[in-house]
Amino acid sequence: MSNSRFSSSLLPVLLAALAVGLGACATSDPDMISRDNVQTMSQVQDGVVLSVRKVTVDGSQSGVGAVVGGVVGAIGGAAGSGIQRESQVLGVLGAVAGAAAGNAAERLVTKEEAIEILVQLKGGERRAIVQAKGAQIFEPGDPVIIVTTGNKVRVTKAPK
Predict the structure, then answer these.
(1) Where in the chain is the domain with CATH 2.40.50?
(2) Residue 85, phi then psi, degrees to nearest 5
(3) 3-class DSSP string for the chain
(4) Looking at per-residue confidence, does 81 or 100 come out higher?
(5) Which of 19-33, 71-85, 125-139 bottoms out in mean pLDDT, i.e. has the lowest?
(6) Which of the listed residues 14, 21, 32, 150 has the most CB atoms within 10 Å of its CB?
(7) What are residue 33's phi and psi, to 5 degrees?
(8) Is-contact 52 131, C-beta < 8 A?
(9) In what order do the strands lie in the sheet with 112-121?
(10) Bridge-partner residues for 156, per DSSP?
C-alpha cells in the first residue's frame, strides 16, 4: 500500500521534472551564442529580407522522454497490485504506456515557434534561413547580415 501511495505521489513530480529538463534544452535562440563559437571567425554576407513567415520546428525525440516515462510507468504499474504476477504484468504495461507518453511529452516540450527568413544576397543569390524568434523583428526590405559559423547560420539586422 505504501509503495502505491509513494509511486502515485512521485509520478507528477517526475513528469514535471522531465518537462522542465527537456524544455531547458529546447532553444535555438539567435541571440544566444554557443560557447564553442566564442573567439571563432565567422563568414558574413550582406543581404536584404524578401519575406518572413512563421514556422514550427518539430520537437526532438532523443529517447530521454521515453526512458523516463518508461521507468515511471513501470514503477507505477508494478505498485498497482499486491500479487507478484499481476504486479509484473502491470509493470510491463506501465512501462510501455509510460514510454509512449514520455516520448510524446518530449516532442511537445521541445517543439518551438520559429521564423523562416528569405534573404537576397548582394550578388543576387537567395537564401532561406529558419531560426528561433529572437529580439529582432524582420520585415521585407530590411538590410541584414547572414552570419555563418561552422554549420550554424543566423540572420541579424545590418548596423546602420
Answers:
(1) 31-57+112-160
(2) -65, -45
(3) CHHHHHHHHHHHHHHHHHHHHHHHHCCCCCCCCCHHHCCCCCEEEEEEEEEEEEEEECCCCCCHHHHHHHHHHHHHHHCCCCCHHHHHHHHHHHHHHHHHHHHHHHHHHHCEEEEEEEEEECCCCEEEEEEECCCCCCCCCCEEEEEEECCEEEEEECCC
(4) 100
(5) 19-33
(6) 14
(7) -100, 130
(8) no
(9) 126-132, 112-121, 43-57, 143-149, 152-157
(10) 145
* Among 16, 27, 20, 13, CA closest to 60: 27
Distance, CA of 65 to CA of 32 (rounded, Å): 25
Provide the grid cell at 46.
Answer: 550582406
User: Which cell is 127 given?
Assistant: 537564401
Question: How is residue 154 written as a grid cell?
Answer: 543566423
**pTM, whole model, 2 decimals?**
0.56
* Strand-pair category, 143-149 with 126-132: unpaired
Q: If one looks up domain 31-57+112-160 in CATH, what number appears?
A: 2.40.50
* Grid cell in block for residue 142: 530590411
**Share of residues in the chain with pLDDT > 70 (%):** 48
